[in-house]
From TrEMBL:
One of the primary rRNA binding proteins, this protein initially binds near the 5'-end of the 23S rRNA. It is important during the early stages of 50S assembly. It makes multiple contacts with different domains of the 23S rRNA in the assembled 50S subunit and ribosome. Keywords: Ribonucleoprotein, Ribosomal protein, RNA-binding, rRNA-binding. The lineage of its organism: Bacteria, Pseudomonadati, Pseudomonadota, Alphaproteobacteria, Rhodospirillales. Belongs to the universal ribosomal protein uL4 family. Part of the 50S ribosomal subunit. One of its GO terms (cellular component) is ribonucleoprotein complex. It comes from Magnetospirillum gryphiswaldense (strain DSM 6361 / JCM 21280 / NBRC 15271 / MSR-1). It comes from the Bacteria. GO terms for molecular function: rRNA binding; structural constituent of ribosome. This is Large ribosomal subunit protein uL4.
Length: 205
């Protein structure tokens, strides 16, 4: 499909032909949900921890006689029902990550790109560069373009552009190798440079 190419000054600078194999697939919400769950689960630290009965400090002695006291029988003061006792079935340190085939992850990225293209929220830039690392100037350009929540993906990120954009709220800048489903979906507008389009098509076809 053909899409126009614009500059940061909102000038049309030509057209580009986007591959239907990467940008023209049917949108599958089930696949996008699965991929976002995979990404968010994988980045969880999993360092939550409570103490089991074997980790509680205290005696192993039976607190009082089994019979004759008129009280419920007890085997340990480290049990869960006592103050300072153990937690039963509490969380332990573990990984929350789960496996997903590489082909499915690749397909999910193509579906995410296709979803943005289908919504009309995919923009192609000729290049994402800045003459100087000035946030004010870049923010004014974004405002003129109507980009309030945007992800910019470039082949190799320009240093000045990265510095100028990193203090603008709701703006992310990634190199093409870092393109992922979660970041594409969490921002309203997806902006790809011509270099990024070429790299993504070469990688995903």
């Amino acid at each position: 499909m053909k899409t126009k190419v614009i500059s940061l000054d909102n000038q049309s600078v030509g057209e580009i032909d986007l591959s239907d194999d990467v940008f023209g697939l049917a949108v599958r919400n089930d696949l996008l949900h699965r991929m976002v769950s995979y990404q968010l689960s994988k980045r969880r630290s999993g360092t939550h921890k409570t103490k089991g009965i074997s980790e509680i400090s205290g005696t192993t002695k039976k607190p009082f006689n089994q019979k004759g006291g008129g009280r419920a029988r007890q085997g340990s003061l480290r049990s869960a029902q006592f103050r300072g006792g153990a937690t039963i079935f509490g969380p332990v340190v573990r990984s929350h990550a789960f496996d997903m085939p590489k082909k499915v992850r690749k397909l999910a990225l193509k579906v995410a790109l296709s979803a943005k293209a289908a919504e009309g929220k995919l923009v192609v830039l000729d290049n994402a560069t800045a003459a100087a690392p000035k946030t004010k100037a870049l923010a004014a350009q974004f405002k003129a373009l109507g980009w309030a929540s945007v992800l910019v993906i470039d082949g190799a990120v320009d240093g000045n552009f990265a510095l100028a954009s990193r203090n603008i709220p709701h703006v992310d800048v990634l190199p093409e190798v870092g393109a992922n489903v979660y970041d594409i979906l969490r921002r309203d507008t997806l902006v790809l440079t011509k270099d990024a389009v070429a790299a993504l098509e070469a990688r995903l076809k």
